[in-house]
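Re: [ENG-882] Designed sequences occasionally contain unexpected residues at chain ends

Forwarding the minimal case from QA. Structure tokens:
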């Protein structure tokens, strides 16, 4: 029995160490790499292009309505957006919950009065259209994307909004 448990633990460790080694779904994007451009449906019913080069800085915030750290970070994200919105900052709240939890997402967005677009990630085959190319495995995950479409900053689980604002100053002013 011990052998089976040890063998299973070894197999999981090997898999975890190699998942995404080919640049696949489990590799977070490092600063300097291109931020993928993806088309996602918003709560407003429109399709939105998230990431990629858009000529202005972007925050791409992956979150879940069921994530306590996300709920802690969203009010700060709203405040940051209020300070930087005039500097052409685009904020995208990408919910990884998908449309099947749209009632919970809509209720939360309404209660929080989120002032920026909320878009749904979605499955195509076995892959999430946005989270997988960005390497998201935990929420929240936040990317600052330069106007040229490159990752300028990446943060996971705990968001340091002071660091986010320092990076944003490289591209625009509040």
């Amino acid at each position: 029995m011990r052998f089976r448990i040890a063998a299973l633990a070894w197999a999981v460790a090997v898999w975890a160490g190699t998942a995404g080694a080919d640049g696949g779904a489990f590799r977070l994007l490092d600063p300097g790499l291109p931020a993928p451009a993806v088309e996602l449906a918003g709560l407003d019913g429109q399709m939105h292009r998230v990431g990629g080069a858009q000529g202005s800085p972007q925050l791409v915030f992956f979150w879940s309505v069921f994530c306590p750290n996300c709920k802690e970070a969203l009010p700060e994200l709203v405040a940051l957006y209020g300070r930087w919105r005039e500097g052409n900052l685009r904020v995208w709240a990408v919910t990884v919950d998908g449309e099947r939890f749209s009632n919970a997402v809509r209720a939360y967005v309404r209660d929080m009065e989120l002032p920026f677009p909320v878009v749904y990630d979605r499955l195509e085959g076995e892959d999430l259209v946005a989270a997988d190319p960005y390497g998201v495995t935990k929420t929240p995950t936040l990317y600052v994307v330069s106007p040229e479409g490159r990752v300028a900053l990446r943060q996971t689980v705990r968001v340091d909004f002071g660091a986010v604002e320092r990076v944003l100053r490289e591209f625009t002013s509040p």
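QA comment: On inspection the terminal residues look reasonable. The helical segments are 2-18, 68-84, 102-112, 131-134, 161-168. Proposing we downgrade this to a documentation issue.
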